[in-house]
Amino acid sequence: MRCTAVVLAGGASRRMGSDKKLLRLNGRSFLEHVVEAARAAGEEVMVAVATAAQAEEVMRLCDARVVLDSHPGAGPAMALLSASAQASHECILSMPVDCPLLKPELYRLLAAELEHSSACIPEALGRLQPLHGAYRRSALAGLERVRSMYQLAELLKARVLPESRVRSADPGLESFLNVNTPQDYRRILELCGASEAEVSGS
Questions:
Q1: Class of domain 3-200
Q2: Three-class SS of residue 177?
Q3: What is the DSSP letter of 181?
Q4: Phi-psi category of residue 48: left, alpha or beta, with phi > 0 → left and psi -120 to 50 → alpha
Q5: In the chain, where are the structural domains located?
Q6: Is the pLDDT score of 55 beyond 50?
Q7: Burial class (CB within 10 angstroms; exposed 0-12, middle 13-18, buried 19+) of 115
Q8: How confident is the model at residue 195 (pLDDT cuts 50, 70, 90)?
Q9: What is the pLDDT of residue 196?
């Protein structure tokens, strides 16, 4: 099944204190890392943002199709619905921009499960991870308002990919290491052996 990878990059980054998609890891922004993973996972890449200013930042950093959220501030589920309405393919891959270590192999596993379901989400780190899901565009098209990604997964009766299978594609579960705070950022930098300049810039 051909896939459109949607990079969710419209958050306000309040806890971080600076725009998370612009944070740097080993010389590149988080956005560039996630877009690279998106290109490896899907035939089409879209970056969903909330404002025109965010769209300009994305276009400055990478060559990707940018879509504006029709309900800015309503959360990633609504951003995904907005992007899916403009997508070219039936499989929609949800990829949060604050997870710079995403593994394309994980998304290939999730997409394969759409042959049997309307959505597939991974289980990792002791909980469901709907931000990293694969969703059928035709199933998303019937939805108008969704409060959260968890509600979205519930509405679509998402198939769950157990952690044992997730680890076959991502043994260290690095895809799920997200950055919400400066402390999270430092942890990612140290894990990846980042330069002192990047660490001090956090």
A1: alpha beta
A2: coil
A3: S
A4: beta
A5: 3-200
A6: yes
A7: exposed
A8: low
A9: 42
The torsion angle over the Cα atoms of residues 183, 40, 69 and 50, rounded to 10 degrees, is 40
The angle subtended at Cα 187 by Cα 181 and Cα 188, nearest 5°, is 95
Q: What is the helix, strand, coil percentage profile of the chain, to 5?
A: 40, 20, 40
Mean pLDDT for all residues in the chain? 92
Whether 202 has a pLDDT exceeding 70, the answer reads no
Asked if 50 and 69 count as a contact pair (C-beta separation under 8 A), the reply is: yes
Distance CA 32, CA 37 (A): 9
pLDDT tens-digit readout, 109-165: 999 999 889 999 999 999 999 999 999 999 999 898 899 999 999 999 999 999 999
User: Which residue type does 191 have?
Assistant: L
In one-letter notation, the amino acid at residue 18 is S
Q: How far apart are CA 21 and CA 37, in angstroms?
A: 14
pTM: 0.92
Question: How many alpha carbons lie under 13 Å from residue 39 in its C-beta half-sphere?
Answer: 10
Strand-pairing partners, residue 3, are 91
Nearest partner of 160 among 124, 193, 191, judged by Cα: 124
94 contact partners, CB below 8 Å, separation of at least 6: 6, 8, 76, 80, 130, 131, 132, 133, 134, 135, 149
Distance CA 83, CA 175 (A): 22
